[in-house]
Design a protein that fits this description.
The chain is of the alpha/beta class. Strand 4 and strand 5 form a beta hairpin. The longest helix has 14 residues. The two termini are 23 Å apart.
């Protein structure tokens, strides 16, 4: 994939899935591309809620909605039609309350990844 040509300071990996079978062919090929990308990053931040990220990457920083042992963790998640709210933890310490005007755990996960970056 073209993303493996980049060498960013920070690489944020939200998940590793076979989104483009026409390009990658298999999950194994997709994982290999993400590993190549991660090797070119100065720092990798990964969502530990994704099994492929957990099993195949070694992120410098991990974030999670489910694992309180992650570097960045969201607890007390409150979803409503008007948005999402959660308590954000950084390495076991409360960082603060995050309020998003958009709903959905996927949006919270993406925001948590941005905070980790």
């Amino acid at each position: 994939g073209s993303f493996v040509k980049f060498a960013p300071q920070i690489g944020l990996v939200t998940n590793i899935e076979l989104d483009h079978p026409d390009r990658y062919g298999s999950v194994t090929e997709t994982v290999n591309c993400f590993q190549e990308f991660a090797a070119r990053c100065q720092q990798v931040i990964g969502c530990l809620d994704d099994a492929n990220v957990r099993e195949h990457l070694q992120p410098h920083i991990g974030y999670s909605l489910a694992n309180p042992q992650a570097d960045y963790f969201a607890s007390d998640i409150r979803l409503s039609a008007g948005g999402t709210q959660a308590t954000i933890w950084e390495q076991g310490e409360i960082l603060g309350t995050l309020t998003l005007t958009i709903s959905g755990k996927h949006n919270l996960s993406n925001a948590l990844g941005a905070i980790a970056a």
